[in-house]
Amino acid sequence: MPITPPVPPRVLTVAGSDSGGGAGIQADLKTMLALGTHGMSVLTAVTAQNSLGVQGAWELPAKAVRAQYRSVVDDIGVDAVKTGMLSSAHLVETVAELLAGTDAPAVVDPVGVSKHGDPLLAAEALDSVRTKLLPVATVATPNLDEVAQLTGITVTDEPGMRRAAAALLGFGPRWVVIKGGHLPGEPVDLLTDGSEEHWLRAPRHDNRHTHGTGCTLASAIASHLARGADVLTAVRAAKAYVTGAIEAGFPLGAGIGPVGHGWRLRDAD
């Protein structure tokens, strides 16, 4: 009898495509592979994107997003879901409804702008993120720009991160990770559920090639949750992976290059 290999943990990303390969669906799938899971995808938008920025974006119809999701989840199943670029209120509400009916942890990266400052979420969709998407999130992972969009709080220090976390928890996610890497000094993220509080610190690497860090972190958290880790363990492990990927970031094109998703594989050679 042939031996059937074990099925790896299954992780689904619901996000936009980055034609340059540094962020979005492409970064998510690279991360999932690097962390030993089987990555699957629901495409929400197509972007024309490179190291210099986003030159164009085209949203897919909600029925196409729903069909992709149902096709994967109803047949293959899923152990964790990660969401990224959901450019309109209609897409946000469609995906929130799908997540609410799925028995798997959901990591929500409330993507608002690209690394280069290009808007990726319509202003009128912010309320849907607050009232529909965040309430179904196991973990939400906003950066400081997204914190300001969603809460109106401009974070300049660690006490501000704590205030922002409390405001975001008020929208309903079980946990939030406030990413403080853009603050001066040692990079620090705050993970909290309102009762537990964990400050996650890492060395700062002098490398400008950091395209895809947010997508990569959220996908790494989802991958570790799919492998059975609790939230704190998953976030700590994801931060360690992203820190290594930032150190391994490389130049590509004339602008900001991507993080090095395969850094552990290269270290093993």
| Principal-axes shape call | globular
The main β sheet shows up as: 9 strands, mixed
Q: Could you name the ranges where pLDDT drops below 50 across 5 or more consecutive residues? A: none
Percentage of β-strand residues: 15-25%
Order of helices and strands: EHEEHEHEHEHHEEEHHH
Rg from alpha-carbon coordinates: 17 Å
Helix content: 25-40%
| Contiguous helical run count | 9
Strand order of the largest sheet: 3-2-1-4-5-6-7-8-9
Q: How many strand units?
A: 9
Structural class category: alpha/beta
- Distance between the amino and carboxyl termini: 34 Å
Give the overall average pLDDT.
94
Report on this model:
- With 269 residues, the protein is of the alpha/beta class.
- It contains nine helices and nine strands.
- The longest helix has 17 residues, at 231-247.
- The two termini are 34 Å apart.
